[in-house]
Amino acid sequence: MSTRASIATTSAAVIAIALVAAACSKQPDNTYQGYVEGEFVYMASSQPGQLVGLAVQRGQNVPAGAPLFTLESQSEADAVTQAQHQLQAAESQRNDLLTGKRAPEVAVSEAQLAAARADAQRLQEQLTRDEAQYRAGGIARGQLDDSRANAAAAQAKVHELEAQVQVARLPGRESQVKAQSAQVEAARAALAQAQWKLDQKQVRAMKAGLVYDTMYRAGEWVPAGSAVVRLLPPENIKVRFFVPESILGTLAAGRAVTLHCDGCAAGIAANVSFVSPQAEYTPPIIYSNDTRSKLVFMVEARPQPADAAKLHPGQPVQVTLQ
Questions:
Q1: Is a pLDDT exceeding 80 seen at residue 42?
Q2: What does the H/E/C string look like for the chain?
Q3: What are 67-104's pLDDT values in tens digits?
Q4: Is-contact 43 227, C-beta < 8 A?
Q5: Which residues are paired to 31 by β-bridges?
Q6: If you average pLDDT over residues 61-70, what whole number do you get?
Q7: Cα–Cα distance between 71 and 74 in angstroms, integer?
Q8: What integer is the mean pLDDT of 141-158?
Q9: What percent of the chain has a predicted confidence (pLDDT) above 70?
Q10: Based on C-alpha coordinates, what's the Rg of the chain?
Q11: What is the pLDDT of residues 194-247, one digit of tens each?
């Protein structure tokens, strides 16, 4: 028998039993048999690892944010440390570009400039003396030309070193700063990704609820995405019951119902949350106008979270329409 056929047979059997029980108990027309069902939350990690700590056990109620389990995380912790160092290095390089050369490097350039100025002053004075000697006929024209060339070269050296000092005091070029800033952002994103993977190794409850089951024991290997804890938040508890086609038009989301169960001291208030648009039959049967009385629709109702803790998945209940 296929899985789909098995599910269909089981569903038909549940409906048939509910209607037979209703007929035998001669319950009021507005009362129907149903059962409790839970929508479980499967708590898993996106990362694989060995289970090193299970903080909860079956049957325990946990608040939102409570730790559930921890996976081994040495590799992820090392990745976070590496990413932190890479970010620090990238930020240091960017700061270095923004501040220009270091003070000792600027001091060297300034000392070279001072020496060049002194040399230029000396050669300019020598040129002045040679020009006087030339006018007096004391030196040849070639010596005067050499003095002029030396003085001009010394002055050009001064201008060169002045420009170098100015450049040494400037920050890095804009394109270099932008490129390094991009490296900083990339390193920051890598750190955030590494931290996220590390955080995934410790899973906490997203909502308060009952620990319905645990799937692994400490020391076992847990694949990525494999649920370790199965939670049942109280707001995820609902009741399913089936009504005949004849009253379907009177049902809508929000309609009040009362739930009765064995051991419940009083009725539990609930509201219809879903009315199935798809019809079902009590036994598998070919539809005809003569068999419309066997046509039923599934309805779901949800109690308030405070009352839901009184109910348990699989528990039979009676549902009275208000």
A1: yes
A2: CCHHHHHHHHHHHHHHHHHHHHHHHCCCCCEEEEEEEECCEEEECCCCEEEEEECCCCCCEECCCCEEEEECCHHHHHHHHHHHHHHHHHHHHHHHHHHCCCHHHHHHHHHHHHHHHHHHHHHHHHHHHHHHHHHHCCCCHHHHHHHHHHHHHHHHHHHHHHHHHHHHHCCCCHHHHHHHHHHHHHHHHHHHHHHHHHHCCEEECCCCEEEEEECCCCCCEECCCCEEEEEECHHHEEEEEEEEHHHHHHCCCCCEEEEECCCCCCCEEEEEEEEEEEEEECCCCCCCHHHHHHEEEEEEEEECHHHHCCCCCCCEEEEEEC
A3: 999 999 999 999 999 999 999 999 998 887 777 666 67
A4: yes
A5: 320
A6: 96
A7: 10
A8: 85
A9: 84
A10: 43
A11: 999 999 999 999 999 999 999 999 999 999 999 999 999 999 999 999 998 888
For 265, other C-beta atoms within 10 Å of its C-beta total 6
Are 280 and 12 contacting, i.e. CB atoms less than 8 angstroms apart? yes
Q: Are 28 and 320 contacting, i.e. CB atoms less than 8 angstroms apart?
A: yes
Say yes or no to pLDDT of 110 above 90.
no
- What is the structure's pLDDT at 171? 62
> What is each CA distance from 272 to 256, 267, 288, 321, in whole angstroms?
6, 15, 29, 9
Nearest to 45 by CA among 228, 216, 207: 228
For residue 130, CA distances in Å to 36, 38, 138, 150 come to 115, 108, 9, 12
**For range 255-271, the mean pLDDT:** 91
Distance from C-alpha of 106 to C-alpha of 167, rounded to nearest angstrom = 9
Tokens of 227: 């649920």
**The pair of three-digit structure tokens given for residue 16, joined into one six-digit string:** 């048939």
Residue 272's CB: how many other CB atoms inside 10 A? Answer: 21
